[in-house]
From TrEMBL:
It comes from Vibrio palustris. GO terms for molecular function: identical protein binding; N2-acetyl-L-ornithine:2-oxoglutarate 5-aminotransferase activity; pyridoxal phosphate binding. Belongs to the class-III pyridoxal-phosphate-dependent aminotransferase family. ArgD subfamily. It is found in: Cytoplasm. This is Acetylornithine aminotransferase. The gene is aruC. Homodimer. Keywords: Amino-acid biosynthesis, Aminotransferase, Arginine biosynthesis, Cytoplasm, Pyridoxal phosphate, Transferase. It catalyses: N(2)-acetyl-L-ornithine + 2-oxoglutarate = N-acetyl-L-glutamate 5-semialdehyde + L-glutamate. Pyridoxal 5'-phosphate binds at G107, A108, F140, D225, E226, V227, Q228, T283. N(2)-acetyl-L-ornithine binds at R143, S282. Binds 1 pyridoxal phosphate per subunit. Pfam families: Aminotran_3.
Amino acid sequence: MTTEMKVDRSVFDDVMVPCYSPMEFVPVEGKGSRVWDQEGKEYIDFAGGIAVSCLGHCHPAMVEALTEQSKKLWHLSNVMTNEPALRLASKLVEHTFAEKVFFANSGAEANEAALKLARRYAADVYGAEKTEILAFVQGFHGRTFFTVTVGGQTSYSDGFGPKPADVTHIPYNDIDALKAHLSDNTCAVMMEPLQGEGGIVSPDPEFVQQVRQLCDEHNALLIFDEVQTGNGRTGDLYAYQGLGVTPDILSTAKSLGAGFPIGAMLTTTAIASHFKVGVHGSTYGGNPLGCAVANAALDIITQPETLAGIKEREVLFKAGLERLNQKYHIFSDIRGKGLLVGAELNEAWQGRARDILVAAGKHGLMLLVAGANVVRLTPSLVIPEQDIEEGLARLDKAIATLV
């Protein structure tokens, strides 16, 4: 019998690469929207693993799907396919604009595939000079060198040497800048249909329409990064469905697997045809375990009562944050859609989002930030109302210690 090594937070500093700064407590168990640490302290989870744990922790359907598949088949190479991957791809096609699916392991890899496909499509159809990728300031698309370059936050992309070329960034929601930069040399526009890491910024309806129209006029592909907004997060299965604009390529990950790593790129048959055999691939992408879990998650997320419940919970969260704001006068704006909610700190509280996150942790609440000035909430899509109320009460106590 093997005795497990005893570990605590201090071990992180001894053995882990210091690119993270984790909280002092170490979670060891979760059920629904509640988590317990090594000391047995309970937390309410308003973070959801950064919009990943869309059905909470250890949802029975997820546990059953993983357990059953683990007894059958774990991994195959992409020399062959597997039943869970075929079922999941069929469901994604059924519920979206897409006709073809490529599976990856993460959002960054799904976005990498999307960008490579856009470049390949443009080169094949229009010629080698059509290479420009237009993206947006404060956007976020992953941590590979290509995706972090397309993301519009230089703090993530600077310091690694020469970047991939022909990437232009313009302000989000700026129609004049869009018209000035989008040209016949643009092969693709990549955008989040609601900026997440950039501060929970929604697109103006007219702006989204203009993006689609200008892409059509200049034969550029429109890529929607729905890694954070997808799989019910905004109250629609995918955010584009609530905007009245359909992209050419869509990336999804995070909550697709409800906690199990999986990503996907969705597109049309015509565009997908330019990824011929050997052009792109993934060792683990579409593995049976991940696809089995994602199948179970998607079955729950696509239920009408699940999607309706997300919009009901949005109202509860925003009303609760507004009550806190009336009490403490801390937020300048409360925004977002569905259960991707941001509370922007006012001038008196600039730079203190992490202070609130840490204080919340001490009071048994797990939060997120989106930059230095926005508190971000991305809880389970099925979080019980009593957990919402209790979590907001704990946030009240946490803010009180900072006033």
